[in-house]
TrEMBL record:
Biological process annotations from GO: regulation of DNA-templated transcription
Keyword vocabulary terms for this entry: DNA-binding, Transcription, Transcription regulation
Name of the molecule in the record: DNA-binding CsgD family transcriptional regulator
InterPro entries in the record: Sig_transdc_resp-reg_C-effctor (IPR016032), Tscrpt_reg_LuxR_C (IPR000792), WH-like_DNA-bd_sf (IPR036388)
Listed GO MF terms: DNA binding
Signal peptide: none
Amino acid sequence: MNIKDFLQHVQDAYAALTELSIIMLDLQHQPVTKVSNITELAELVLFSPDKPFPPSCFPNDYTEWQRPMVVQTGYWGVKAIVAPVLVEQKVEYWIWAGAFIEEETKPMIKEQCFRFPDSQIWLQAIEQTKEQTISSVEKKLNDIEKMATICGEFISNNRQKQHYEQYFYLLDTAVDRAQQFSLHMDDFLHMFQKIDSDIDFSLYIKRQNREWVVAHAVGEKAEQLWNQQIKTAFPPLSNSLFHSHNVVCVENAALDPRFAFFVKNGIKPSTVVIYPILHNDEVEGWIVIGSQTKRSLPKEAVQIGAILMKYWQLHSKYELAYIKMDRHFMRLSMLIEIGRAMNVVKDTDEIIRMMTDFVAELAYGDFAFTVLADHKRKVKVHCGAISEQQVTEYYEDVCQRYFSTEKRLLENIPKLRETKFGTVMEISFSVHEHVHGVMAVHLKDIEAAKEAEVYVAALIGIGTMVMKQNTYQTSKQELNIDMLSERLTTREMDVLNLLVQGCSNREIADRLFISIHTVKNHITNIFQKIGVNDRSQLIALVYQLNNRKVINEEHH
């Protein structure tokens, strides 16, 4: 049901209840409804040719008129009730309910009728009109007031419904655009302007290079504010508001010296609403909307702005998570490819160079630095934006801190160090008991240090595993049977002897009184220490070493 039909139905019902003729008018005194229950006296008042309707009973200044009143109709003694219809606390319509005469006034009114044109018609209408007592007039006042309230609430609710439909449309649009990954800050600011027709501008203020600047602006006059710096006097940047994280509404902002930034640029905001953008409970920016004509925005509009703001924060987190996930997949793919490449390379120096080249990309740093040291030499490799002089200084510092004692190398705990060329993550590692190393990689973002640590450690783990494998494979032919007992534990030697005899895992477990799981662990350790991949290789190597020992003994 539309508004006019509803108002007509309500008016018809109250006309029957009060026995008055009722009509509703807008602020320009134009009829909104048709007259209900028109009586002969009301018809004379409303449609008399000598006094066009509306009569002077309607005020010119209606801002203070909040309740129904009994007024003169312009015809002596003939009265009516006029009531304002308040919509959102403002008068938007008038109810005229009449015409009636009060008790004990009919004789005097009849005397005056002779002055009216068509006096006989007036006399007849007055005669037929029932006089109203004080109590009945009061009741009619109360009934008309109820009618005005019902009409005002219906109109308010209908407008709120329209606003909410508009708000839901905005939210749906935001969701659709976000799902298509096409929701950008400019689009978002345009959505803020659609919250209310009186919003003239919207801004996005963010921190850049330790300053607050207007990063985006929407509005005819606001666009000239792009890239302009905001002074700390601006309300959101003051200490009290900066840490409150609350939405701030300011009326008469043009008269507030803190908003001189706007006035200086030709914008004189009557009201301003400021929304904080939070990340990890810290303010990273502000959305500022304002109107140059409206003293304040509806409460619902401000709340919808807060919902949009929260949705933007949620969307930003989702985008960040998506980017991180994509970054994880890229890093994992990179690790797999690096591992395959290093498996092909047999030279330790080349493996260190590959690790150094790729670690800066894994950690998104500007440079990386690696030192590998054994008892004979120290290999240093670097890449990225670091000078030879800085490399030399850093190399000497690393050697002093890590290679002067082996105890510090055994810690194997990532450390963050502040250097004159930025924050660096250092991780020590060990290839075997005689070969140790330190990898250092620059970090652009300290907050991402934990994430970078995982991939740097994984790269180091892959690199050291390949270097160990190459070391064992290289030295395999130089092994002799006596060196096996030096590399293997007593229990591993027991397992090795039974393996060479052709015993199964179950038989080994039974003979040594250990579990099959423990046997498998011992076999895996033996394979790694000797540098073989399966039992056949192991048995062949042991027989080969035994033969070599026999030959050497015969030779001597």
